[in-house]
Design goal:
single chain, about 375 residues, alpha/beta, Rossmann fold, 2 domains, seven-stranded parallel β-sheet, six-stranded parallel β-sheet, 18 helices, about 40% helix, about 15% strand
Length: about 375
């Protein structure tokens, strides 16, 4: 079976959807199924460091491009297949999939090309969340309309839909007005590097390079309104004065609204290898988001040996399990109390970590890859 993947996020996004795609593809390759061939389709080569994280066993494909065609602009296809065209993934890619003999195409980031069902190529799409429909207030109204259009077009094309959480599955059924017959729940896995031992030399080098404090609580994710980092920042004032908060992620205008504090450290553009070391240096992990499709940073933190405090209201309990702590996303005192109860030396801290690590065994990569492969085989 020749499987094609939408690799735009794989080569461009350091975290989030990019991590999901790289982890899944690598886990499928590691299975070593001799009847499977994997081709990754991207509109450009993206970042070298991200592309090189795909282990040997898959090949990248880029838009078909013929300079003579481009000069003549002979057909609409030549325009759509021009390098970096945002329309290539929606329209032009179907011709490339036919050319390469793709039997099944997996849209890893919630999108499928228009016309793939008509082409006879089977298709699977992973939908991570429908926050733009559940909470449109976090988006520009134009973006909300565009994302909603793509969602409804995609579920028309898809033979199977993978939801990464029960919460996302329910949202797909509600907003897509479809039954669960075409939906499969397959939880997201985490990259092995987060559970790999880190040396003291690595820790010292990373701590010095990023000027990290001795004791800190970690947050990972885009610093935006929905992620609600303000709750953790406000709770910081109720914690011991030597406890700092380190937030790693792309910064939006929301970051500028956070209270100024010498105990708050915002980091952007951190490579994956350094992020794994930063996890190992932290004392606890906080994830105060108001709404998520899943919350993979929680699982990464648990894999790295950290206790977790998160918020209620979406699916974070589904990701972290019953041994993490969860508070209302507007409860500053509750957040501070929960964080105090998971700092080093707190009663029950080690037991929380142990039970949480048992819980996330269900998200290990080989099992997730096997479930995804089973979805593929349903269609043949």
């Amino acid at each position: 079976m020749i499987i094609g993947f939408d690799a735009k996020r794989i080569v461009r996004n350091g975290t989030g959807l990019g991590s999901y795609g790289r982890t899944l593809v690598n886990d499928l390759i590691r299975r070593g199924d001799t009847d499977m061939e994997y081709l990754l389709y991207a509109p450009d080569k993206g970042r070298d460091d991200l592309r090189q994280q795909i282990i040997e066993g898959a090949q990248f494909r880029y838009p078909s491009f013929n300079s003579l065609q481009a000069k003549r602009l002979a057909t609409i296809t030549s325009i759509l297949q021009s390098f970096n065209s945002p329309l290539w993934r929606t329209y032009g890619i179907v011709n490339d999939l036919r050319r390469d003999g793709i039997q099944l195409y997996h849209g890893l980031s919630g999108e499928l090309p228009i016309g793939i069902r008509k082409s006879g190529i089977r298709s699977v799409v992973t939908i991570h969340d429908l926050i733009f429909l559940r909470h449109p207030e976090y988006y520009h109204w134009i973006d909300t309309k565009l994302y909603a259009w793509k969602f409804h077009q995609t579920i028309k094309e898809a033979d199977r839909i993978i939801a990464i959480s029960e919460r996302t599955k329910q949202d797909i059924m509600e907003y897509g007005h479809i039954s669960d017959e075409r939906i499969r729940l397959v939880y997201q896995s985490y990259a092995p590097r987060f559970s790999t031992a880190v040396t003291p030399d690595q820790q010292q080098e990373v701590r010095q390079r990023y000027l990290l404090p001795e004791r800190f609580i970690l947050n990972v994710g885009t610093i935006e309104h929905r992620k609600n980092l303000r709750l953790a920042v406000d709770a910081l004032s109720l914690l011991p004065s030597d406890i700092h908060l380190v937030a790693v992620g792309r910064q939006t205008k929301y970051a500028q609204t956070l209270p100024q504090s010498n105990r708050l450290h915002l980091l952007s553009g951190v490579p994956d290898a350094d992020l794994a070391v930063i996890y190992s240096l932290a004392e606890a992990f906080v994830y105060p988001s108001r709404y998520e499709g899943f919350g993979i940073p929680i699982i990464e933190a648990i894999a790295a040996g950290l206790p977790v405090v998160a918020c209620t209201g979406s699916c974070l309990e589904e990701a972290g399990g019953p041994s993490c702590l969860y508070v209302d996303p507007d409860d500053v005192e509750g957040m501070a109390a929960a964080l105090l109860s998971v700092l080093e030396g707190a009663d029950g801290r080690d037991e929380r970590i142990r039970l949480s690590q048992q819980y996330i065994e269900r998200f290990r990569g080989t099992d997730v890859a096997g479930q995804v492969l089973a979805v593929y085989r349903e269609l043949f």
